[in-house]
Each structure stands twice: as structure tokens, then as C-alpha cells.
Amino acid sequence: MWQVARRKGKQPRLPLAWELLTGLLTPFFLLLDPRGLLQERRMPQFQEQAESRWSWVVLLATLVTQGLTLGFPTCIGIFFADLQHDFQASNSETSWFPSIMISVLHAGGPICSILVEYFGCRVTVMLGGVLASLGMVASSFSYSLSQLYITAGFITGLGMSFSFQGGITALGHYFSYHRTQANALASAGVSIGTTLWPLLSRYLLEVFGWRGTFLIFGGVFLHCCICGAVMRPVSLKTESIYPPPNKVPAQGCLLTCAQALRRRLAFDVFLQNQGYRFYTLGIVWMLMGFTVPHIFLVPFALSHNVEEDKAAWLISIIGFSNIFLRPMTGVVAGWSIFAGHRVYFFILAILLNGLSNLICVISADFSVLVFYCLVYSISMSGIGALMFQVLMDIVPMDRFSSALGLFTILESIPVLISPPLAGLLLDTTGKYSYLFYMSSFFLISAALFLGLSFFTLKKKEKMMDRAKEIIALENDLSLRSIEDPVPQPPQAVTYVTYVTSV
After folding, report:
1. 8-43: pLDDT as tens digits
2. Which pLDDT score is estimated for 342?
3. Is the separation of the CB atoms in 24 and 226 below 8 Å?
4. Between helices 109-139 and 156-174, what is the axis angle to 10°?
5. Which CA distances in Å does 435 have to 80, 197, 414?
6. What is the DSSP letter of 176?
7. d(CA 107, CA 111)
8. Which of 86, 216, 254, 356 is exposed most, by the fewest CB atoms within 10 A?
9. Is residue 116 helix, strand or coil?
10. DSSP tag of 235
11. DSSP at 230
12. pLDDT by 10-residue block (mean), the chain, 502 residues
């Protein structure tokens, strides 16, 4: 039946439940065969179509993956005081743990790009789940902060990077027409994770301590393997996920590595695409302040005599609000009338995020902090729903994977520096208000930079389009004058002279 259907050029369809079961089991059978991964890449196989019903299964898997990966760092503040007490460390030393984790989560983009190209999104996401699980299990046996940096910081962060970025890439290939709405719905997983991770962390910390909690988290991260299993290869009309290797003469190892690095990190896109260059630099500057409230909000509330349960609820309020706000933002941004203006919505979200941090400087009362979390949620929903969609609007999809790799590895620099710098500022001054001033400065200045850059770029593009229209009009008039040698009337001469003066 399969041979007959394929000879007729039709794609055989199975019930969705059976497709889901085969999608879950196929990677495990491939892993049993040491040559299975290469066979999955080289052998012809059944591929899904973009915008099909299976795309919504991949969307659900990406949503869960983002909740498990991007939502997890928001709960680190719950363990901040316990880690400081057990390891007798300062704020700056303890803050290196979440900064390394988040930095590696972003910096793993180039490695993830290579894995996606050679083994596909499915295997990459599953490998990320295994690494994240191993890192958390090993961290539960750590007896120094340096061991925690390696296990929960580096290994878990690298695993989360593979799962998150592999899922984002798969989602971009599965959706084309509804890509904006799909990205917004998938980013709601971050909100769900931000809501549930702090509550689960607070409960497990009281019952098992931070070591037992990290051990349980190792089992939770294995769910990324299930999510990756459903991300089957998708057939593309204009591009291929697995391009055939180029037959070129053997080159030196250094030259080969340099060429591979250049291709994976999309330096050519960064140099030639002004929009991508402005966007990347603006986001790098923005992240110097964006990650500070996520890590220090709970310690800030605890330092002002807010109960531990209420302090944990602050992060959950932000996450719960984003569950509804992110999809709404994505739906509105997906309207055709806003197609060319999504970047300005994103800039307004950054500006509001920076201004909202000043609320914590006014008062540390619990009711004021709840109001801050609600305002912060509105701005965070715009940033989370539009960040990668704006990147997809700026960069062609055939270069998105490599552009995302360079984008995320540059993001890792401020993410690595910002929390320890904020911790050092706290150790020096002893006041949390300076942290929120620091966060507001970077966010507001980044919004102004992006706004001016894209306004100038759009104005320049309009002028270039107008110049092209004038040149095309002049060429058309020249062709008409050659074809018809009849003397031109006076008004035609006046019209050409006017266009030239413009």
C-alpha cells in the first residue's frame, strides 16, 4: 500500500494517534542502532508537510520545551539564600551560577546549529533533554560552588540550549503563513514554566532541600526527550535541512574550521544586513539589565520582610499573566496591518520594561510589588512574543538557524556578565535600589537605540525605493523616445527636467 501510494505521488496519511505513537518511538529505535542517526539523515524517509495537522503537535512540543528550558532560570532566586548559606558565598559568587546557566543556554547556538544540520531537530532536542537531566542530577551531589558551576551551570545550560533552539528551528520550518501566531503560542510555554517552576521549587525546597529538589528536576528535564521525539523532519520546497556535503579538495584543519565557523555563525549576514546588525547590538545591550529582576526580585522581597511564600508568588504572578498576554500579543502582531511595524511594538515593550523597574525603587510593600509584577508582565509578554518573530522578519529562513546561532552567542556575553556585576554592586552598596536603577538604564537606552536605528533604516529604504522608481521611470521614457522618434511635446521636456532635479 505504501509503495502504491508513493508511486502515485501521494503522501500516505495515518490516524493522528498512530502518527503520534510512531513519532515518539522512532528516535528510540534509531538510537539502538549506532548507524541509525546517519541513516536518518541519508536514507529517504517519510517527511511531514509544513502547515499540516502535525504542525500543531510540534507546536505543543515546542511550548512544553520552552516552559522546561527558558522558564527554569526564573526559579533560581528561590534557592539563592540556601546556596549562599551552605557554601558561605557572597552575592556576587552565588550569582555566577544562574549567569553561567543562562549564558550557556544562549551561547550553545552554534553547536546546536551544527547538530540540527547533521542530525535534525528531533535528535538535537532529545540530546538536550539528556544533558540537562544529567547536569541537574550531578549538581545535587556538588559540595562547592565550582562544581555547581560545571554541573547545573554549564552542562544543564548546554542541554537546555539544544532543546530550546532546536525546537525554535523546527517550529520555524513547520509554520510559514501562521508563523507569528505559532511563535506567540509557543512562547506562552515560557509563561507557564515561569508560573509553575517557582511554586514547585518552593514546595520541594521545604520538603527535600535544594539537593533533593535538583535531583527531582533531573527527572523533569527528561520530558524534553518526549517533546523532541515528535519533531519529525519536514519537507521544504525552497530549502533543505540536510544539505548534501560539497565535494571540495581537502583543506587544512584551520581553514576548514574557520569556514565552518563563518557559515554557522552567519558573520556575512551580520556585516551585510543592517537590520540584523542593529537588532543584535540592541538586544545585547538590553540583556545587561533584563535578567537582573528575574534573579534578584525574590531576594529583594525577602530583604524587606516579605514572607517566603509570598515572595515566590511574585515570579508566579509574572508567569501566570504572560500565559494570556503573550498569545494576545502574538495575535495582534500577526495582523497584516502590523506586518511592517512589529519591531516598533517590540521597542515599546522594552521601554515599558525599563520604566516598570523604577516602581521597586518607590516602595517594597507587597501590594506595590504585585502591581510591579503586573506591569512587568505586560512588557515581558511583548518582548517574549516578538523577539524571535522580529528576527525571522529581518533574516531569511534559509539563514535563520545560523543567524540565531550568532544572535544567541552574542546574547550570552551580557547574560554572563550582568548578574555577577549586579551582585558586586549589591555587595558594595548594600542597597537593592541600585540594581533596579541599573536595569532601567540598560533597558531604556537599548529601546532608544533600537528606535532611532530602525527609524533611520526605514527612512533610508524608502529613499532607495523612491530612487529606484525614478530610475525605472527615466529608463522607460528613454526606451519610448528610441522606439518613437517623433519630436516630444514641450510638457514632456519639462517633466523630465523636473524629475532630474529631484
Report:
1. 444 444 454 444 444 444 444 444 443 444 444 443
2. 85
3. yes
4. 140
5. 16, 24, 15
6. S
7. 9
8. 254
9. helix
10. E
11. T
12. 44 47 44 41 48 81 91 86 87 87 84 83 92 94 91 93 88 76 79 87 91 94 92 62 43 60 73 89 93 87 86 86 81 74 90 93 90 91 84 82 79 88 89 92 95 90 79 74 58 39 34
What is the Cα–Cα distance from 344 to 347, expressed in whole angstroms?
5
User: Is the separation of the CB atoms in 338 and 393 below 8 Å?
Assistant: no
- How far, in Å, CA of 314 to CA of 356, rounded? 15
pLDDT of residue 307: 86
∠ CA 289-291-296, rounded to 5°: 100
| Burial tier of 468 (Cβ tally within 10 Å: 0-12, 13-18, 19+) | exposed
- 3 state DSSP class of 443: helix
DSSP string, 301-313: HHHTT--HHHHHH
For residue 234, the SS3 value is strand
Cell of 472: 525605472
Of 340, 329, 23, the closest CA to residue 190 belongs to 329
8 A C-beta contact, residue 77 and residue 295 = yes
pLDDT given at position 252 = 59
> Average pLDDT over the chain, rounded to whole?
79
How high is the pLDDT of residue 24? 44
Query: Helix H segments across 357-432?
Result: 359-362, 366-394, 400-429
Q: 346 near 390, Cβ under 8 Å?
A: yes
Q: Please say whether the beta carbons of 350 and 450 come within 8 A.
A: yes
Do 110 and 405 form a contact (C-beta atoms < 8 A)? yes
Of 399, 120, 107, 105, whose CA–CA distance to 263 is shortest? 399
290 within 8 A of 353, measured Cβ to Cβ: yes
Strand 234-235, strand 48-49: pairing: parallel
Torsion, Cα 307 311 317 322, to 10 degrees, reads 180
Q: What are phi and psi of 396, to 5 degrees?
A: -60, 150
Q: Which residues pair with 49 in a beta bridge?
A: 235
- Whether the CB-CB separation of 380 and 289 falls below 8 Å is answered with no
Query: What is d(CA 377, CA 364) in angstroms, rounded to the nearest whole number?
Result: 18
Cell 520550518 found at? 173
| Nearest alpha-carbon partner for 349 in 312, 386, 317, 324 | 386
Handedness of CA 243, 244, 246, 251 (dihedral sign): positive
CA–CA separation, 233 and 250 (whole Å): 31
With a pLDDT cut of 70, the percent of the chain lying above it is: 78
Amino acid at 178: H
Provide the 3-class DSSP secondary structure of residue 473.
helix
The three cell numbers locating residue 262: 563563518
Write the DSSP symbol of residue 247. Answer: -
Q: Which residue has the cell 548578574?
A: 419
